[in-house]
Amino acid sequence: MKRFLAAVATTALMITVVPSAQATPTATGTTAVGLHNSYTQETAPWLVDVLDRNPGMIEIDVWTNFFFTNDFQVGHDPGNANNCSNATTYEGLRSGNRNQNLAGCLRNIRLWHDRNPNHAPMVVKVEMKNGFDGRAGFGVPQFDTLLANTIGAANIFSPAALKGGHPDLDTAVQASGWPSRSALTGKFVVIVENGTFELGNPFDNYDTDLEVTDRLIAANSSGALASALSFPAINGASATDPRTGDRGGARKPWMVAFDGSATSYAGFGGAPYLGGKYLVVMTDAHNVAPAIDSRNPAAADAQARVRQLGAIGATIVSSDWTSAEILSYTAS
């Protein structure tokens, strides 16, 4: 069965001394803001409430249920417990039944996109809580097909688009980097990573990020890379390049996204992480010293934190911040 800057004395001082992300470019040349647990009703009554605030990233927790409901479910715990509507129109996204499966949540995103086709690029971070299981029909290819049938392949910036004419993704980002935010207007970037339950499952030794990576390698070898719509993200901050061991060798050139604790990244030194070439999500940004409120900080404090982490290579700074003024902010 598969299981998905040093601390400164005051905020005012931080605003004064932290270099801008423009001086030390990130993967896309900017740093945007993501919302942790975007799908919960505690975060917002409806998923569209989050989307309308124009965050740089939303996060969805997914459970693979191949025993009972036979679908991908969305919730912090097994089962569907979320703010996604069963609406079929944008106007209905704040009504109807909530607690939809992953297909329903992705259709909410598509309805919002169709109403806002020129939106800023948005990362969709998917934590596969108990991983994929291709043997039961819930593998990465099936996940990619679901993305194509809901959000739409044309609306997703894919691994094939990043690779272009290069032999692999790492060569592509080293040569040309990720596209700028303006070049990604109207696009979603889907990153998929290991889940907490999966990592604690002693019977699962094939982690989600490895499975997504192997999907890319196989699809590329067979000439079908265009059908692969999601990127693997290595979860867990590492001071050095984490693409070693199982994540090294043939897999390394296909892993170009990273996710981990902002506090850890901030402790690694002042240079942009891994040269600023990669898509890097820095989570729990409020905890970086000096800590600020995790839900409703002053906008100036949160925006200063975004600039601080952008200077060390964050593409996305993530927290539980919910205000539109913060979520729609980008540092450049």
UniProtKB/TrEMBL annotation:
GO term, biological process aspect, one: lipid metabolic process
Q: Does the keyword Ligase apply?
A: no
Q: Which Pfam family is one of those matched by this entry? A: PI-PLC-C1
Q: Which UniProt keywords apply?
A: Hydrolase, Signal
Q: Organism's domain of life?
A: Bacteria
Q: Which InterPro entries match?
A: PI-PLC-C1 (IPR032075), PLC-like_Pdiesterase_TIM-brl (IPR017946)
The main enzyme category here is hydrolase
- On whether Signal is a keyword of this UniProt record, the answer is yes
The UniProt record lists the EC number as 3.1.4.11
- The positions making up the signal sequence are 1-23
- What are the protein's GO molecular function terms? phosphatidylinositol-4,5-bisphosphate phospholipase C activity
What's the protein name? Ca2+-dependent phosphoinositide-specific phospholipase C
Q: Give the species this sequence originates from.
A: Umezawaea endophytica
